[in-house]
């Protein structure tokens, strides 16, 4: 069984630094790695995935597909080789499928397993079992799926009775790539066109990858459709670096004067690059992020960041959030180094992530003497502010842990971040890489 290359300690002390200097690569993209395994398993033939993310969340997806009878080899060369079984080649799992901490694994599997001819059951860790699942159950039931959750169908574990599905047009009340992807994967098994409409455009990795595997995909600014029943052809996938992981180091370099950091081969998909746009609006010195995006392939490039003494505050609204949902924690920390008041609105979705990220940020930054106002759907952060040292908690959330580590880089004294082993879900080498690029005061 594949395992992450690095274990993460349960707590980490981060010391203030003089600057960040280096030429780095960040872990492979988590969202794309998930989809490469899931969609590759449905192809009819051999699929080779290069630069797969060996972190806990993606390994949960890999092991889930193995439990469904898909031969998947983690080769010595570092490639993942999948012998795709086609749409109808999955086998009944011998036991409950454990999705660990991965909401992507659980929600996308719900769409995939709803159309099978067998029953299955999905569960996860204590954090995943608190995350909302009704948002996926509701549209899948409209397609004819038979799913049952706990607590009024809100929570996992999820019981799935495979059933024939029908295509639908679904107007999603939220912009969620996981909801959209679950419906599109279920739509692969339906006769005709299945369409998902969203209030704002969410990340589009599923649509791009399905197209690469030969599925008929139609995309507009606010909708995505697949036509089934589909036949997926073999393909080769190379996963770029994860912009959401890179964001923590990029932000650190941008806000610490004298820093010079080159991040190589990072994904620059326009539905994921909202964080870079925010850095530019804040006046960060950044180059290399303007690459061509044809909407079909996953664009990537090298991004260079030079630190500045001060940035400027920005307003982030609901229409911005889908393109930077995972980066809000580090944007909040960055705002502490900006002139003016940064306002983040329309981010209520952060309350149902691995933890309530808005509450976690407000509590942690307040513990370091920051002034921060928590709103039902966002945060108000005046700046610039100085932080004292102290102890903060990740609350079991990898992005909260990494954001607070960045805060420790410019605090007046060391910051201890506890419950940091959760970082293994996405960026097992984060603290190691952070030490390598840090220049001590």
Automatic annotation (TrEMBL):
<dbReference type="GO" id="GO:0003866">
    <property type="term" value="F:3-phosphoshikimate 1-carboxyvinyltransferase activity"/>
</dbReference>
<keyword id="KW-0028">Amino-acid biosynthesis</keyword>
<dbReference type="InterPro" id="IPR036968">
    <property type="entry name" value="Enolpyruvate_Tfrase_sf"/>
</dbReference>
<feature type="active site" description="Proton acceptor">
    <location>
        <position position="326"/>
    </location>
</feature>
<feature type="binding site">
    <location>
        <position position="30"/>
    </location>
    <ligand>
        <name>3-phosphoshikimate</name>
    </ligand>
</feature>
<dbReference type="InterPro" id="IPR006264">
    <property type="entry name" value="EPSP_synthase"/>
</dbReference>
<feature type="binding site">
    <location>
        <position position="131"/>
    </location>
    <ligand>
        <name>phosphoenolpyruvate</name>
    </ligand>
</feature>
<protein>
    <recommendedName>
        <fullName>3-phosphoshikimate 1-carboxyvinyltransferase</fullName>
        <ecNumber>2.5.1.19</ecNumber>
    </recommendedName>
</protein>
<dbReference type="InterPro" id="IPR001986">
    <property type="entry name" value="Enolpyruvate_Tfrase_dom"/>
</dbReference>
<dbReference type="GO" id="GO:0009073">
    <property type="term" value="P:aromatic amino acid family biosynthetic process"/>
</dbReference>
<feature type="domain" description="Enolpyruvate transferase">
    <location>
        <begin position="16"/>
        <end position="432"/>
    </location>
</feature>
<feature type="binding site">
    <location>
        <position position="357"/>
    </location>
    <ligand>
        <name>phosphoenolpyruvate</name>
    </ligand>
</feature>
<comment type="function">
    <text>Catalyzes the transfer of the enolpyruvyl moiety of phosphoenolpyruvate (PEP) to the 5-hydroxyl of shikimate-3-phosphate (S3P) to produce enolpyruvyl shikimate-3-phosphate and inorganic phosphate.</text>
</comment>
<dbReference type="GO" id="GO:0009423">
    <property type="term" value="P:chorismate biosynthetic process"/>
</dbReference>
<dbReference type="GO" id="GO:0005737">
    <property type="term" value="C:cytoplasm"/>
</dbReference>
<dbReference type="InterPro" id="IPR023193">
    <property type="entry name" value="EPSP_synthase_CS"/>
</dbReference>
<comment type="similarity">
    <text>Belongs to the EPSP synthase family.</text>
</comment>
<comment type="pathway">
    <text>Metabolic intermediate biosynthesis; chorismate biosynthesis; chorismate from D-erythrose 4-phosphate and phosphoenolpyruvate: step 6/7.</text>
</comment>
<dbReference type="GO" id="GO:0008652">
    <property type="term" value="P:amino acid biosynthetic process"/>
</dbReference>
<dbReference type="Pfam" id="PF00275">
    <property type="entry name" value="EPSP_synthase"/>
</dbReference>
<feature type="binding site">
    <location>
        <position position="178"/>
    </location>
    <ligand>
        <name>3-phosphoshikimate</name>
    </ligand>
</feature>
<feature type="binding site">
    <location>
        <position position="399"/>
    </location>
    <ligand>
        <name>phosphoenolpyruvate</name>
    </ligand>
</feature>
<feature type="binding site">
    <location>
        <position position="353"/>
    </location>
    <ligand>
        <name>3-phosphoshikimate</name>
    </ligand>
</feature>
<feature type="binding site">
    <location>
        <position position="176"/>
    </location>
    <ligand>
        <name>3-phosphoshikimate</name>
    </ligand>
</feature>
<keyword id="KW-0808">Transferase</keyword>
<feature type="binding site">
    <location>
        <position position="35"/>
    </location>
    <ligand>
        <name>3-phosphoshikimate</name>
    </ligand>
</feature>
<feature type="binding site">
    <location>
        <position position="31"/>
    </location>
    <ligand>
        <name>3-phosphoshikimate</name>
    </ligand>
</feature>
<keyword id="KW-0057">Aromatic amino acid biosynthesis</keyword>
<dbReference type="InterPro" id="IPR013792">
    <property type="entry name" value="RNA3'P_cycl/enolpyr_Trfase_a/b"/>
</dbReference>
<comment type="subunit">
    <text>Monomer.</text>
</comment>
<feature type="binding site">
    <location>
        <position position="326"/>
    </location>
    <ligand>
        <name>3-phosphoshikimate</name>
    </ligand>
</feature>
<feature type="binding site">
    <location>
        <position position="103"/>
    </location>
    <ligand>
        <name>phosphoenolpyruvate</name>
    </ligand>
</feature>
<feature type="binding site">
    <location>
        <position position="178"/>
    </location>
    <ligand>
        <name>phosphoenolpyruvate</name>
    </ligand>
</feature>
<feature type="binding site">
    <location>
        <position position="30"/>
    </location>
    <ligand>
        <name>phosphoenolpyruvate</name>
    </ligand>
</feature>
<keyword id="KW-0963">Cytoplasm</keyword>
């Amino acid at each position: 069984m594949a395992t992450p290359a690095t274990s993460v300690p349960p707590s980490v002390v981060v010391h203030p630094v003089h600057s960040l200097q280096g030429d780095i690569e960040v872990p492979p993209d988590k969202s794309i790695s998930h989809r490469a395994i899931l969609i590759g398993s449905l192809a009819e033939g051999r699929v080779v995935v290069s630069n797969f993310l060996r972190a806990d969340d993606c390994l949960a997806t890999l092991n889930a597909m193995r439990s469904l009878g898909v031969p998947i080899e983690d080769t010595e060369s570092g490639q993942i080789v999948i012998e795709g079984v086609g749409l109808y080649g999955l086998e009944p799992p011998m036991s409950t499928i454990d999705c660990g901490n991965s909401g992507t694994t659980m929600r996308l599997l719900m769409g995939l397993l709803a159309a099978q001819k067998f029953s299955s059951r999905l569960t996860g860790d204590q954090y995943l079992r608190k995350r909302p699942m009704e948002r996926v159950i509701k549209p899948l039931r409209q397609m004819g799926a038979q799913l049952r959750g706990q607590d009024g169908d809100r929570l996992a574990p999820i019981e799935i009775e495979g059933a024939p599905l029908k295509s639908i047009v679904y107007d999603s009340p939220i912009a969620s790539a996981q909801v959209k992807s679950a419906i599109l994967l279920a739509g692969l098994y339906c006769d005709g066109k299945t369409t998902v409409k969203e209030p704002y455009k969410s990340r589009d990795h599923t649509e791009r990858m399905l197209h690469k595997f030969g599925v008929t995909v139609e995309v507009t600014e606010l909708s995505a459709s697949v036509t089934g029943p589909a036949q997926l052809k073999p393909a080769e996938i190379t996963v770029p670096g994860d912009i959401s992981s890179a964001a923590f180091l990029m932000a650190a370099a941008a806000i610490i004067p004298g820093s010079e950091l080159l991040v190589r081969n990072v994904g620059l998909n326009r539905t994921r690059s909202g964080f870079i746009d925010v850095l530019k609006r804040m006046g960060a010195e950044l180059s290399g992020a303007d690459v061509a995006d044809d909407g079909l392939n996953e664009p990537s490039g090298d991004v260079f960041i030079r630190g500045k003494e001060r940035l400027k505050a920005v307003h982030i609204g609901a229409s911005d959030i889908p393109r930077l949902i995972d980066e809000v924690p580090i944007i909040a920390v960055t705002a502490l180094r900006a002139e003016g008041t940064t306002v983040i609105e329309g981010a209520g979705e952060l309350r149902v992530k691995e933890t309530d990220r808005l509450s976690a940020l407000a509590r942690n930054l307040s513990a370091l003497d920051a002034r921060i106002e928590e709103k039902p759907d966002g945060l108000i952060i005046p700046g610039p502010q100085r932080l004292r040292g102290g102890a903060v908690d990740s609350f079991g959330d990898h992005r909260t842990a990494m954001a607070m580590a960045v805060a420790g880089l410019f605090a007046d004294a060391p910051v201890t971040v506890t419950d940091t082993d959760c970082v293994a879900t996405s960026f097992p080498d984060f603290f190691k890489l952070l030490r390598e690029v840090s220049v001590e005061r």
